Amino acid sequence: MSSTPTDGGRRERFDRGMETLGRVDGEAGRRVIDALGDVSPELAHQIVAWGFGEIYSRPALPPRDRQLVTLGILTSLGGCEAQLDVHINAALNVGLTPEEIVEALLHAAGYCGFPRALNATFVAKKVFGERGLLPVRQE
Amino acid sequence: MSSTPTDGGRRERFDRGMETLGRVDGEAGRRVIDALGDVSPELAHQIVAWGFGEIYSRPALPPRDRQLVTLGILTSLGGCEAQLDVHINAALNVGLTPEEIVEALLHAAGYCGFPRALNATFVAKKVFGERGLLPVRQE
Amino acid sequence: MSSTPTDGGRRERFDRGMETLGRVDGEAGRRVIDALGDVSPELAHQIVAWGFGEIYSRPALPPRDRQLVTLGILTSLGGCEAQLDVHINAALNVGLTPEEIVEALLHAAGYCGFPRALNATFVAKKVFGERGLLPVRQE
Amino acid sequence: MSSTPTDGGRRERFDRGMETLGRVDGEAGRRVIDALGDVSPELAHQIVAWGFGEIYSRPALPPRDRQLVTLGILTSLGGCEAQLDVHINAALNVGLTPEEIVEALLHAAGYCGFPRALNATFVAKKVFGERGLLPVRQE
Amino acid sequence: MSSTPTDGGRRERFDRGMETLGRVDGEAGRRVIDALGDVSPELAHQIVAWGFGEIYSRPALPPRDRQLVTLGILTSLGGCEAQLDVHINAALNVGLTPEEIVEALLHAAGYCGFPRALNATFVAKKVFGERGLLPVRQE
Amino acid sequence: MSSTPTDGGRRERFDRGMETLGRVDGEAGRRVIDALGDVSPELAHQIVAWGFGEIYSRPALPPRDRQLVTLGILTSLGGCEAQLDVHINAALNVGLTPEEIVEALLHAAGYCGFPRALNATFVAKKVFGERGLLPVRQE
To answer: What superkingdom heads the lineage (chains A, B, C, D, E, F) (predicted)?
Structure first.
């Protein structure tokens, strides 16, 4: 019996994770998982079963809040343009607006510097372009 | 006349920044600014006038959202325990609960690893202890 | 029935993780877990149940090899002196000699620079001192 | 009346910044600003008005010195190849020679490791090639 | 007479380094050295003469162990995909199996996060593909 | 006969390095080297013989320029407060003024964010205090 939202065996956690992954990251997330199939299926399993099945599934922080934290991390880490692509899509999927996303990246500049904020903003430009969301209106 | 919220000369931006700084970071933020007085008053000025007077004052992202982004950045940068202390206090000041803060740091673990998440969580423990907020209840 | 070494429900994974944690990190690891109890018990749970119960328990890489990878990561991340303390102890526990550990940190200097290698080496000095392993003999 | 070099309203700081940006970063800098126009015009504004209008305009450190600091930062941050491209051009624009630039990157290797120094040096090779400055003579 | 394995003048260290470089990094390492010839021959010299002639040549840690440390560092640094390409090849050259390499990168995920582990794993996929080593079998 | 400034055997490079180290880093540098004696004498040797005997001794960049690059790197790396202590002393030793040093750190804020600039500035405050150089005058 599962007494917490993250209980369950290996297979249950994976299935719960795939459902959350699909809702948050959509097609882009599934492509990453598929691409791992012939090189590191266990990494794919853990991203889904642990990252999405255990962590993302916890109700203590709603999906929109999780993406704000994630945008901050991926922007400041640097070299995570591929993951920013997935998560800027995810941010839009869970209700953040383009205006809020670029504001979050502007805000990040003060904490991790303009180069990292620029790199993330150009990924946002690419994602917004693909989804017909350009130009972004800022006051 | 200020046509945007971040217009104004050097002094106006500083005054607006001090007001925002006080509201967000409280006493801890002012102590950092004071400590800079004899070594780099211009760095102190820019943190206040630019960071808080221009960026934090923008309405495009509410204070609670800014702290979620900031927690993500400071956790993943590493070596920013002093700033995490200020901003975990700030996070509480703008309405994030201890439960949400530790969940944000748990969420961060998947993106920047357990060591950084642990360091940030132990800063949170210190701040929560000082404010009488321990133990944190998690389901 | 567990068909893979990392299957099992929430409790089983935690128990398996505690056993591995004790074997690898010893007392130092348990102290970290205990210290999380009143601030983020779920972070404690995941470090044990996932990090040790799922990842460390996999037979695909022996414990000594895992610590070599970990020393490389913690040295280059920076700001992880607390974790280096635990893992330099762990490295000794799983069979790496002091000579091999300092050689790994010297090797790291070329990849992440002398400052990070120095910080890690001074943690090693502290751990070796506590365990009566100084001076380290290098040819 | 501006009593310090960085006073002035939003528009004045932007204009002063554009002048400095043009002198330091030249065409490459302006292209970055233009590319931000439809996604984050405020980020573009702040890079110009704050970064160049306030910080770069201060007389306390000459432009050549600022590029030495900047080369150190961008090399060690990693993942900033686009910004290194702009700033290696800037370094040449403000009087650093190719020999000095590659020496700075060699010097950086000891502090942030060979991989970051290599990545920066290959950006320098690209920039030098575009400006007809290859081969670089070193004793 | 050399009383330590890393003694010798500038030329001797370079020659010893080229021999070690060839054995560890193979053709990929030599291509990096050649590419530096017209921009920073001294950086090329130091990578060979110091990195390989002095550090890699020391017997205190066998080549396989050095690559485990190196994989940990390059994965966690981020933005070192070019160097990971060389060193995943090197890891194979000195006896690590594809299964061990992807396990090391999965292990890294807990210490530096999934994004860095993913980036490194996709470099591994490229290298394994070039050497006819896909698919990797994991239990 | 040494045809380049960095030629010579193991012992000559070490002696040349100790001379340069003393001139640049002074007593603080020597204390670091001494502290390594019982844990990693080879790391001590390489910092001196390679870092100072080979790299710092090259005439292609004067000592003041090397410290500007180094300040940029150590500020942006983070977690290098001990090394910043040594190198802010070194920066003063080779002719940078306190005003130039704090300006370099203010400049760094735009590239690596305020938290890292703050940490470095507080190390500068400590060093300046020890050398009777407070308060720093900035216009």
So the answer is: Bacteria
